[in-house]
Amino acid sequence: MRKRYTPTFKAQVVRELLREEKTLAHLAAEHGVHPTQLIKWRTTALEGLPSLFTRQDSTAALTADDESRLATLYEEIGRLTTQVAWLKRQSGLDPLAGGARGARRT
Question: Over its length of 106 residues, how does the chain's per-residue pLDDT go in tens digits?
């Protein structure tokens, strides 16, 4: 059965690995993780470091994009609601229109 490690555990081990106070083999034995796995975790951490400093900018861009998409969707909802109401009135299915199909208001 595969072992699953929490992100917190991985971060702790990678921090120790980056301090270079202990050897890779010593850390692997101490934490019960294969040395190859530690190398993969370290590589992943180092590759992800630049994104830590750009996350705020990308979050703001995503928020602005979501707000514009939301506004577009609300416009479409309004347009479709108006069309459904018009179709109900024209077909006589609208109980508030006050009559059958032939008795339309003008």
Answer: 788 999 999 999 999 999 999 999 999 999 999 999 999 999 999 998 887 776 666 677 788 889 999 999 999 999 999 999 999 999 988 777 665 554 555 5
CA-CA distance, 27 to 39, in Å (whole number)?
A: 11
Q: What is the pTM of this model?
A: 0.51
Angle, CA of 20, 17 and 40, to the nearest 5° = 135
Q: Token match 């690995």: residue?
A: 17
Distances (CA, A) of 12 to 3, 20, 54, 90: 17, 13, 23, 67
H or E stretch at 13: helix 7-19
